[in-house]
Design brief:
This protein is an alpha/beta fold and 350 residues long. It has 2 domains: 34 residues, no CATH class; 314 residues, Glycosidases (TIM Barrel), CATH 3.20.20.80. Helices cover 45% and strands 16% of the residues. It is built from 15 helices and 10 strands. Strands 1-2-3-4-5-6-8-9 form an 8-stranded parallel barrel, surrounded by 5 helices. The chain is globular, with a radius of gyration of 21 Å. The two termini are 24 Å apart. Bound molecules: ligand 9MR. Ligand 9MR binds next to loops.
Length: 350
């Protein structure tokens, strides 16, 4: 049951009991006065508001407190990737993913599971030798089946294939594409569906927020997959944005065209980086981007929710990958909310 409903129900029960006992209903009134969380605000729109997290961060109790409070959807940033879950061929290790699923359950949060088929963060045993198509197909099927079965009934969705296209809309020449051809995507979706018929199955990528060659490639692929009856439920728009490249103003239209194909959409890895140092002006602009992307999702019926790629600059992946850039998330390194946090509240509060 969603947390808001649990809380409201509890508040109602408490209030009724107090009224029956002839006591003033202060606690219930306070529960309603408490500032609603991002998750509670999103829930009013039938959406979720999520954050990625990663196992090493979970020892930081100030961090986990906010993670458990503000969000109702969690994505493991690394713990369910191939290198973590099948470090040796046929030897599975679910400990990292399990830790995050357990924490999410304790906090009444759902899980967007990430990710089954990707070209990155693969174990050495997989990348250091040549495979025939038949061998690699068997390896892929076994991995997907084992992982999706393990988390069956425990996760809301799977990013089944991650980052399959180049910027120009051609297929990325990954180990999967080069060895198996483009059919690996439909196969992966079918195998995942067999292993957990209830999980929502997504394709997920970055730089597809605006209408353009890369998002067009997903549009055509999604159309084809749907026409062939392949079990595809949604497209994940990662939304790793950067102030210096401009806001993707066609985002809402783009989400809508996928909705018209009968697909869910979600903003799955949102962050808005900037060139450091962060100034008040840049943080204010960043806030308008967070507001606008949230509004775009709320404006499109089948956009089911927004996930930030962790919520605090303390644990952002950006500085390590883009030197001189950062400050990309709604909370700063001290876990203080930034203007972007207020902007999210404003967008969700309408
Ligand atoms: O957040 C992840 C970071 O900790 C890893 O070092 C990185 C390795 O590539 O992957 C990050 O997450 C990526 C996600 O899985 C897919 N989209 C891009 C994300 C940022 O690189």
């Amino acid at each position: 049951m969603p947390r808001t409903i649990v809380r409201l129900k509890l508040a109602g029960v408490v209030a009724a009991a107090l009224v029956a006992a002839g006591v003033a209903t202060g606690p219930a009134a306070q529960a309603h006065d408490r500032t609603p969380t991002l998750a509670e605000l999103a829930h009013r729109h039938g959406r979720y508001f999520g954050s990625a997290t990663d196992n090493p961060e979970l020892t930081d109790s100030a961090y986990t407190k906010i993670l458990g409070r503000e969000f109702d959807m969690i994505t493991p940033g690394n713990g369910m990737k191939w290198y973590a879950t099948e470090p040796q061929q046929g030897v599975f290790d679910w400990s990292k993913g399990d830790e995050i699923v357990k924490l999410a359950r304790a906090n009444h949060q759902r899980v967007r599971a990430h990710t089954l088929v990707w070209h990155s963060q693969l174990p050495d045993w997989l990348t250091s030798r040549e495979w025939t198509a038949a061998q690699l197909r068997a390896v892929l099927k076994k991995h997907i089946t084992a992982e999706v079965r393990h988390y069956r009934g425990k996760v809301y969705s799977w990013d089944v294939v991650n980052e399959a296209f180049n910027e120009d809309g051609t297929y990325r020449e990954t180990i999967w594409y080069k060895t198996l051809g483009p059919g690996y995507i439909a196969d992966a979706l079918r195998w995942a569906h067999q292993a957990d018929p209830h999980a929502k199955l997504y394709l997920n990528d970055y730089n597809i927020e605006a209408v353009g060659p890369k998002s067009d490639a997903y549009y055509k692929l999604a159309q084809n997959l749907r026409a062939q009856g392949v079990p595809l439920d949604g497209i994940g728009f990662q939304a790793h944005l950067a102030l210096q490249y401009g806001y993707p103003s066609t985002l809402e239209d783009n989400l809508r065209r996928f909705a018209r194909l009968g697909l869910d959409t979600a903003l799955t890895e949102v962050d808005v980086r900037m060139q450091l140092p962060a100034t008040d002006a840049k943080l204010a602009e960043q806030a308008t981007w967070y507001r606008d992307l949230t509004r775009a999702c709320l404006a499109v019926r089948r956009c089911v929710g927004v996930t930030v790629w962790d919520y605090t600059d303390r644990y952002s992946w950006i500085p390590a990958v883009f030197p001189g850039e950062g400050a990309a998330l709604p909370w700063d390194e001290q876990l203080e909310p930034k203007p972007a946090y207020s902007a999210l509240r404003e967008a969700l509060g309408r």
